[in-house]
């Protein structure tokens, strides 16, 4: 593709200064201002009171991670992709709950976990939510919590797909500026308010008709992002992040488009994309800026191995596919970016290593080490 940077993308980072490289390496941690005056005992909830009031109770053992949480940068927010897994008994929940109960009531318990300060609302990718649905989520968490929300595929997928995910037609609403504001930006703002942290625009794998015309693609993406930014004019703290699923798009044209519209690049860690080391040059080219990372699938399962990962990892209560290499580089990246005062949102799926809460614990320890 003309103008694209092919993996390993080493050329893109050649013009970066040593200072920028240092920011993505080891850096001293800043004290977490959000909890610096709170003792471990003060952070402990009254579980007897909770059991009389709530339908889902947080795991008492999770509160032991409060000391670890206080060692992390205040700008760092860890979270998971969804919160409806019964297998997290003892890790996030105090006992057995079915997935339906957790889906409806689990968020209130989830957000009391010391390490879980954000969550990625993935269900919006499949169907837009209303402002009232977002407001229901916001009502279950405290004022410090922030949401990462994915734009519906009806806007970010160039192809309309059937129930099995197969493309069946061209999507006429692909990257539509007015539709993205009407069906996505406005409802999230109205429902989540100050608890909205990141809007993620994941471009599904593109057909050759778009990959062969990168200039037209990035022009269209730029127009949509401009509309998003205009709608967010009074909400400057909200991060706009673009995730791609085609390695061919990792080039200067992507950097230029994101820079022009005040957006950042979302690290998408899974088999469809190159490893984290090969994606970091895009973030360096956008520096200074925040970190948005979604660690979705262990690379050992390949580009389309979600079903295999689910089969191996169920019930998602143990690390079965440990990825030390990714965790090490990600921890170093987090330290560098937050150490420079920038925010970091990192969400992890069970498909990354087998159990998202345990992956977050290990990653937190690596950041704090």
Outline type? globular
Task: Give the low-pLDDT segments.
Answer: 1-21, 26-43
Which percent range fits the helix content?
25-40%
Can you write the helix and strand succession as a string? HHHHEHEHEHEEHEHHEHEHEHHEHH
Number of strands: 10
Structure characteristics:
two-stranded antiparallel sheet; 369 residues; alpha/beta; 16 helices; UPF0759_sf
Q: What would your notes on this structure say?
A:
- Residues 23-42 are annotated as: Disordered.
- Residues 33-42 have a biased composition (Polar residues).
- InterPro entries: DUF72 (IPR002763), UPF0759_sf (IPR036520).
- The chain folds into two domains: 64-79 and 265-369; 122-262, no CATH class.
- The protein has helices at residues 18-23, 40-43, 47-53, 66-69, 99-110, 131-138, 153-156, 177-192, 208-211, 214-231, 252-260, 276-285, 306-313, 324-339, 350-353, 356-368; strands spanning 76-80, 118-121, 146-150, 159-161, 167-170, 196-203, 239-244, 264-269, 291-295, 344-348.
- It is 39% helix and 14% strand.
- It has an eight-stranded parallel beta sheet with strand order 1-10-9-8-7-6-3-2. Strands 4-5 form a two-stranded antiparallel ribbon.
- With 369 residues, the protein is of the alpha/beta class.
């Amino acid at each position: 593709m003309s103008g694209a940077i092919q993996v390993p993308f080493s050329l893109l980072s050649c013009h970066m200064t040593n200072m920028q490289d240092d920011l993505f390496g080891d850096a001293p941690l800043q004290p977490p201002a959000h909890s610096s005056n709170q003792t471990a005992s003060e952070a402990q909830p009254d579980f007897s009171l909770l059991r009389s009031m709530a339908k889902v109770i947080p795991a008492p053992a999770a509160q032991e991670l409060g000391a670890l949480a206080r060692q992390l940068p205040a700008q760092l927010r860890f979270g998971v992709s969804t919160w409806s897994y019964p297998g997290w008994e003892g890790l996030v929940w105090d006992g057995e709950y079915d997935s339906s109960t957790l889906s409806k009531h689990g968020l209130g318990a989830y957000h009391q976990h010391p390490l879980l300060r954000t969550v990625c609302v993935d269900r919006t990718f499949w169907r837009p939510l209303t402002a009232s649905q977002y407001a229901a989520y916001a009502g279950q968490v405290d004022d410090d919590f922030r949401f990462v929300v994915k734009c519906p595929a009806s806007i970010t997928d160039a192809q309309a797909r059937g129930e099995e995910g197969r493309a069946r037609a061209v999507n006429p609403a692909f990257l539509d500026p007015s539709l993205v504001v009407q069906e996505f930006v406005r409802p999230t703002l109205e429902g989540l308010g100050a608890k909205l942290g990141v809007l993620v625009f994941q471009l599904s794998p593109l057909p050759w008709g778009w990959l062969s015309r990168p200039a037209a693609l990035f022009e269209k993406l730029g127009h949509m992002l401009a509309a998003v930014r205009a709608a967010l004019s009074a909400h400057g703290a909200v991060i706009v992040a673009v995730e791609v699923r085609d390695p061919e798009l990792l080039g200067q044209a992507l950097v230029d488009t994101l820079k022009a519209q005040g957006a950042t690049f979302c690290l998408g860690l899974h088999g469809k994309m190159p490893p984290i080391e090969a994606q970091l040059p895009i973030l360096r080219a956008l520096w200074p800026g925040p970190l948005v990372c979604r660690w979705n699938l262990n690379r050992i399962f390949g580009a389309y191995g979600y079903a295999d990962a689910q089969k191996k990892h169920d019930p998602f209560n143990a690390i079965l596919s440990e990825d030390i290499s990714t965790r090490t580089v990600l921890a170093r990246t987090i330290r560098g970016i937050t150490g420079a005062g920038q925010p970091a949102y990192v969400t992890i799926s069970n498909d990354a290593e087998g159990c998202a809460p345990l992956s977050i614990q290990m990653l937190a320890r690596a950041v704090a080490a």
